């Protein structure tokens, strides 16, 4: 497909792609479609959450305490850091500031998602489903949104199965106890690779030729900054660097957005 | 449950929710208002508005891909660091033994990444990519004795 096609043509094509998936699906059908889209996240989350529960148990947290952290915070990396802060006796203020700083990147996800779904999206229950807008849920929503008729029901289905798998995994891990994986280090490491594999798959599903430079810039800057300062800063700086490169290099189009490119990708 | 743990979880939980929800809400509200209000009612020259907002749109539109690329890079980083750290030990250790140890980390990583992409491509299935990638990583880790 011609990347420089007139804006009107592209708009028509986009409309066709968006409405082709589930044009008149009920809220329930959209919710279930979202839940199905969340299955890869469930596969990735559950073992990591079990690892979190096992770690929490090792650090002396009860299963109620570990599960409470997952129920209320629901942010993987922050929870592992929270464990370290709690067990080291750090002050409440230090803990709050450190953990919120780690999650600052999430502030970009809502506007970026809005940019993807545009006027196709309605916002009534965002206060509920935005609680589940984690890295993986955001990445899946961004990858899938252009292929279907986005709705809050779909988002709720996606978010709920992911949340349940995270909380359920934590509960299972903390009940298994601190020594659960001692006898199976290979299984432990294979399960830990689920998350990198999930992000690689999501990146592959999103990537188009035009966006390669954006992705490469984001990944390279992220790797360098993360190696020097830590993962959270790396993600934030890498994400901004990639978006800046895209802003500078992209040719302004009718929609003004590189999103149109992903919307024209074959399903 | 300990009081400090409950307090920390509640404050961080609410703060994280606010970080996820408020920018989303503001973005949507602004987007809807802008769709309904002509440029001159904002007191902005149409050309300038299109330029600035076009750049903001391009920035936000690219944030999704950039964020996922950054997240994938960070997820791979510990494996890369492990491989490089073992690789640098080659100079000081016996070349054959250290070389095989380094291989034991590099090869599973390469196999895992390649298997993920190869499993994803035929049906563009994220689930298949995730499962096959992790299985291939575990299998090659077992074969090369890294665990």
Q: How would you characterize the overall build of this protein?
A:
The complex is a heterodimer of chains A (267) and B (147). With 267 residues, chain A is mostly helical. Chain A has 15 helices and no strands. Chain A has 2 domains: 24-206, no CATH class; 207-267, no CATH class. In chain A, helix 13 (212-229) runs antiparallel to helix 14 (231-249). Chain A starts with 6 loop residues before the first helix and ends with a helix. The relative contact order of chain A is 0.17. Chain B is mainly α and 147 residues long. Chain B has one domain (37-143). Chain B has helices at residues 3-36, 39-42, 46-88, 95-120, 126-143. Residues 95-99 of chain B have low confidence and may be disordered.
Record the SSE blueprint.
The complex is a heterodimer of chains A (267) and B (147).
Chain A lengths: L6 H14 L6 H11 L1 H20 L4 H10 L3 H13 L3 H11 L6 H9 L8 H4 L5 H10 L7 H25 L8 H8 L1 H13 L5 H18 L1 H19 L9 H5 L4
Helix pairs in contact in A: 2-10, 3-5, 3-10, 3-12, 4-10, 5-6, 7-9, 9-12, 13-14
Chain B lengths: L2 H34 L2 H4 L3 H43 L6 H26 L5 H18 L4
Helix pairs in contact in B: 3-4, 4-5
Summary tags:
heterodimer, A: 267 residues, mainly alpha, 2 domains, 15 helices, 71% helix, globular, disordered N terminus, B: 147 residues, 5 helices
Order of helices and strands of chain B: HHHHH
In total, the number of domains of chain B comes to 1
Q: Strand percentage of chain B, roughly?
A: under 5%
Number of helices of chain A: 15
Average pLDDT of chain B? 77
**H/E element order of chain A:** HHHHHHHHHHHHHHH
In total, the number of strands of chain B is 0
Radius of gyration of chain B: 24 Å
Q: Specify the overall morphology of chain B.
A: extended
Mean pLDDT of chain A: 79
Distance between the termini of chain A: 13 Å
Strand content of chain A: under 5%
What structural category do the secondary elements of chain B indicate?
Answer: mainly alpha
Shape of chain A from CA axes? globular
């Amino acid at each position: 497909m011609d990347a420089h096609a007139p804006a009107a043509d592209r708009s028509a094509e986009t409309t066709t792609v968006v409405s082709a998936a589930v044009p008149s699906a009920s809220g329930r059908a959209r919710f279930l479609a979202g839940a199905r889209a969340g299955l890869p996240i469930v596969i990735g989350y559950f073992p990591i959450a079990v690892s979190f529960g096992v770690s929490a148990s090792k650090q002396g947290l009860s299963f109620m305490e570990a599960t409470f952290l997952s129920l209320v915070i629901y942010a993987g990396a922050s929870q592992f850091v929270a464990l370290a802060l709690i067990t080291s006796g750090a002050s409440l203020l230090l803990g709050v500031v450190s953990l919120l700083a780690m999650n600052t990147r999430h502030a970009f996800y809502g506007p970026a998602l809005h940019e993807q779904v545009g006027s196709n999206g309605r916002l009534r229950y965002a206060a509920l489903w935005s609680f589940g807008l984690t890295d993986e849920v955001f990445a899946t929503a961004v990858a899938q949104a252009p292929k279907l008729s986005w709705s809050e029901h779909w988002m709720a289905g996606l978010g709920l199965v992911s949340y349940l798998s995270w909380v359920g995994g934590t509960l299972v891990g903390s009940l298994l106890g601190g020594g659960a994986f001692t006898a199976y280090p290979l299984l432990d490491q294979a399960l830990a690779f689920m998350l990198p594999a999930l992000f690689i798959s999501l990146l592959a599903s999103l990537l188009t030729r035009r966006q390669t430079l954006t992705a490469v810039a984001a990944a390279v800057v992220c790797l360098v900054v993360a190696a020097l300062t830590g993962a959270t800063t790396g993600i934030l700086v890498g994400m901004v660097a990639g978006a800046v490169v895209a802003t500078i290099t992209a040719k302004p189009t009718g929609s003004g957005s590189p999103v149109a490119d992903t919307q024209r990708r074959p399903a | 449950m300990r009081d400090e743990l409950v307090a920390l979880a509640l404050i961080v939980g609410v703060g994280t929710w606010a970080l996820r929800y408020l920018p989303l809400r503001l973005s949507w509200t602004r987007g809807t208002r802008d769709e309904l209000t002509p440029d001159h009612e904002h007191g902005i020259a149409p050309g300038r508005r299109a330029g600035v907002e076009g750049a903001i749109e391009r920035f936000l539109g690219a944030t999704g891909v950039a964020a996922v690329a950054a997240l994938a890079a960070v997820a791979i980083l510990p494996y890369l660091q492990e491989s490089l750290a073992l690789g640098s030990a080659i100079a000081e250790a016996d070349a054959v033994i250290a070389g095989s140890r380094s291989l034991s980390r590099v090869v599973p990583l390469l196999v895992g990444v390649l298997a993920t992409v190869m499993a994803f491509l035929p049906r563009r299935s994220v689930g298949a990519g995730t499962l096959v990638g992790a299985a291939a990583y575990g299998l090659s880790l077992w074969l090369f004795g890294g665990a």
